Amino acid sequence: MENIIRREREKRGWTQAALAVRLGVSRQTVNAIETGKYDPSLPLAFRIARQFGQPIEELFVAEGQ
Amino acid sequence: MSLGSPHSEAMTNETDIQEEARSRGAQRRRSWIRLVIGVVGYAAAMIAVRVWGHLGGTDPWRFLWAFLPLIPAAWLVINITLRARQLDEYQIKLVYRALVVGFTVAIFTAATLGMLGISGLYLPYAGWIVVFAGGVSWGVTNIVTGAVRQF
Fold first, then answer.
1. What's this model's pTM, rounded to 2 decimal places?
2. Nearest residue on chain A to B5, judged by CA atoms?
């Protein structure tokens, strides 16, 4: 799964730590999601989408699509 | 399905975020201190048992001494459980991986030692070999996966 979380976060001037606090997860988790090491659960993906005010399918794209 | 933590909903300004980050840092440090207290307590209990417990003797109290390390062990279990409840989904995934490796290695080490016992090779401290194999594989996997940084 690919995502544009880093781009969206940087666009808003948020650090990984700040986004982590907003999402209620650790900074390492945000880093793992951004680098594609970890695909978040559906509830967490919804939380991310809500923070960025965008639908999930715009933030996350299945590889090859 | 919950769409967000109660904290994230109210997290609207930088002061709130910094306050939350500080609170999490303090929570993590407290967990570490409690874990260190548990480990030190466990080591102290083991030493006390070796020095004063006379486990190899005939005093019936030696059986009670053998249970002494369970007191700090219970403290450790409680605090590890409390810390585990604070982990998020990615942290749980990392910690789980190390537990699976540690548990599997311990089980197969115990089974191998059991087979050796059946075949006549008696190892006097076989239990400690299981503890060592399970503990080391658990610890090494924690380091390799980065799970150790999550605690």
1. 0.72
2. A24
